[in-house]
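Notes for week 9. Today we move from apo structures to complexes. The key idea is that a small molecule is not decoration. When we ask for a structure prediction with NAP present, the ligand SMILES becomes part of the input, just like the chain. The input block below holds both the sequence and the ligand string. Read it once before you look at the output, and try to guess where the molecule might sit.
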Amino acid sequence: MVLHRDLGPFDTTAIGLGEMPLTIEDNLGHGKGIETIHAALDAGCRHIDTAWAYYCSGGEEQTGEKLVAEALSSWTGPRDEVSVATKVGHYRNFTDGRPTWDVDGRPESLIRHAKESALALGVDSIDLLYFHRPDPRIPYRESVEAIRQLVDEGVARTAGVSNASVEQIDAAREILGADLIAVQNQFSPIWTETADTMAHTEELGIAFVCWSPLGGFRKPKDDAVFEPFRRVADRHGVSYQQVVLAWELSQGEHVFVIPGAHRPQTILDSLHAGDLRLDPDDQAVLEHGVRKD
Ligand SMILES: NC(=O)c1ccc[n+]([C@@H]2O[C@H](COP(=O)([O-])OP(=O)(O)OC[C@H]3O[C@@H](n4cnc5c(N)ncnc54)[C@H](OP(=O)(O)O)[C@@H]3O)[C@@H](O)[C@H]2O)c1
């Protein structure tokens, strides 16, 4: 069984499927996307992470949320066990001819997009709705007040913030109270700058969800950082990616990981990370290798 943890009111898996690679640039097509989500669910994954903005720049909007909805409605397993998180505040654009991720944190945009997210997901109420990323043009609290309104109106059951600093988490907590159940920040062996927010969420008793937990699906910026993980992986006879995820999950009971995948094989392997027990020798090797910023 895949490791379970409580994400606010949801009993879900500590290892979720990050949907993004299935619908942004370089995805392997609609059929592979459905196959990958079904494979994850069949293997016991009960947590899917998507976003309003997970589509190709210039293409049809919200294809990530639509793919998740289609995969869940055609899946024959227990749909009510699956928690789906989505996010609003980003949209895709082109700058200098290249696909970009732009932000729009205006309250009216967040409210419109969240309602569109619920429609695309085919739900009355979104399980977990994140404010995707602060918009420097909009006071942070104004954006979070829109998330507050969405929870009050029942568009979302619970709320989260993403790409948030300790100060922003505290501001969100003031506005959202107990409805703030999660912070989703980048965290991996190549990205430990957010360790302060991981510690802060533990103090607050809310979940910390690591995005790009394997360093992202493009070539890691610093592959040497993963060497200690490869050494520990050899000792256990598993992939180094499982060791990375197990190390992240060992940072606290409040930690979740959402590895992305383009294909069933990779998410199926990642889902085993919760079975891996890292002993003190393993931890010493890993802690020594990880970048401390
Ligand atoms: N909140 C935010 O601002 C934000 C930003 C970025 C991402 N996210 C979320 O975080 C999720 C994960 O991030 P990510 O997709 O950027 O990167 P990631 O999870 O760090 O890395 C995904 C890559 O790792 C590979 N992989 C996964 N499991 C593996 C395994 N067991 N063995 C070997 N390779 C494995 C995948 O390979 P294949 O390609 O071969 O399948 C994919 O290329 C996203 O899907 C999204 O939901 C959130």
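DSSP finds ten helices and twelve strands in the chain.
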